[in-house]
Amino acid sequence: MAEKRLRNSLREHRVRHGLTQEQLATLVGVTRKSVNAVETGRFVPSTVLALELARALGVPVESLFHLDD
Amino acid sequence: MSDVEVMEENRRQILWLLVIGIVSWQGFDLAADSLKLTGGLHALWIAAKTASLTGAITWAVAMIRMSFFRRRMKRRPAVAAALEDEVVQDARLRALVLAFQVTLATLGMLLAVDLLHPLPLQFGVRLTVMIGVSVALVSFLRARKAEENG
């Protein structure tokens, strides 16, 4: 099975909500660098963190993260 | 700057102090011991021992700062949780795995050298500990730096 890559639109949603990385990090309870690591795809978040990010931005998790086909 | 950012910067400084401390403490002390064994210049030996002492003091200062840091973290559980988020834990785990591999490689090299030229046990142990600890710390710090700007 070919390896699939997890893409995300975290940055777009965050900017749409007028939040900085630091503000989103505070809402979710992580560091700013960690939000940056997820946004840039350096780190694939756990289900819990993905759900927390989605909840903080008020969007369904599947609109934040999707698999690259 | 949020509390989490301030504390993360604090942690970064403490970890760098630990790296500088252990490398100069143990590195210069090993150099001084080697100079003694090979009959090197006494002035160089004194310089190496002084640098080693400075490194030991740096290490001790960093450890004291770390204990104050931990005490502050206990009083602020939300900040402590953010500083130990899953990205940080992942970076730490990767750093420890790399340090373990480098430690094994160092031990392998020391054992190979020991076959040709017997080395004092203390030399090998101290060199291995110094390399293992500094690789773990530097690897963690580099991972966090890479996560800073993407």
Shape field of chain A: globular
- Biggest beta-sheet profile of chain B: none
Number of strands of chain A: 2
Strand proportion of chain B: under 5%
Tell me the number of helical segments of chain B per DSSP (H or I, 4 or more residues long).
Answer: 5
Series of H and E elements of chain B:
HHHHH
- Shape verdict of chain B: globular
Largest interface comes to:
A-B, 19 and 19 residues
CA distance, first residue to last residue of chain A: 12 Å
The radius of gyration over CA of chain B amounts to 18 Å
The order of strands across the largest sheet of chain A is 1-2
Largest sheet of chain A: 2 strands, antiparallel
Helical percent range of chain A? 55-70%
Regions of chain B with pLDDT < 50 over 5+ consecutive residues? Answer: none
Number of strands of chain B: 0
Helical residues, percent of chain B: over 70%
Oligomeric composition of the shown chains: heterodimer
What would you call the structural class of chain A?
Answer: mainly alpha
Distance between the termini of chain B: 19 Å
Quick structural summary:
By secondary structure, chain A is mainly alpha-helical. Helix content of chain A is 55%, strand content 12%.
Question: What characteristics describe this protein?
Answer:
heterodimer; A: about 70 residues; mainly alpha; two-stranded antiparallel sheet; 5 helices; B: about 150 residues; about 90% helix; globular
